[in-house]
């Protein structure tokens, strides 16, 4: 379990996860399997659209940490701009 937690923390949504059966799979594949499993309950509760959006957004855009790393690759002012523009109210 510690190894699985370390992998998830280190590589995030773009990396691999360890499934309950012990397989190492891409995070996207694991999330897809999870969504298939819980879709009936989400649909029954009327939450499928919201949860689907919340799950798929980081897969498409990356996590905030991913965006910060990409900005840092552009030089120091870029992540500062990213953080200040995304953390202040419009």
Automatic annotation (TrEMBL):
Gene3D superfamilies: 3.30.590.20. Residues 60-90 are annotated as: Disordered. It comes from the Bacteria. This is Uncharacterized protein. It comes from Streptomyces flavidovirens.
